[in-house]
Design brief:
Elements (H helix, E strand, L loop, with lengths): L3 E3 L15 H16 L4 E5 L8 H11 L6 E2 L1 H7 L8 H7 L1
Parallel strand pairs: 1-2, 2-3
Helix pairs in contact: 1-2
């Protein structure tokens, strides 16, 4: 069984809000490396704006650290912007996509 950890602020692995610029990529690399060192196989990312994420850079970092990204959580869209795929309002659902 593969085990993954959510990169979260409560564990000291918070990634900056918004897009992952250079500082965010360094934080991601630190989190990936440290979690790999203690035996995790993957890191679930909780990302506010998936469309602005530098996916190829994150892939390079995860491969370099030997961990997978088995899931990307978008709950921050709801927490920070109130957007949800299950919103009763069609316009807000479309924004969530």
């Amino acid at each position: 069984m593969k085990i993954s950890m959510v990169a979260s602020s409560g564990l000291g692995y918070a990634l900056p809000r918004g897009s992952l610029e250079e500082v965010g990529l360094k934080a991601a690399e630190r989190a990936f490396r440290e979690l790999a060192e203690i035996g995790y196989d993957g890191v679930e990312l909780s990302i506010e704006e998936p469309g602005r994420t530098r996916a190829l850079e994150l892939k390079r970092i995860s491969e370099g650290c030997g961990v997978e990204v088995p899931a990307i959580g978008t709950g921050l869209l709801y927490a920070y912007k109130g957007l949800s795929l299950s919103d009763a309002n069609e316009s807000r659902r479309r924004k969530a996509v």
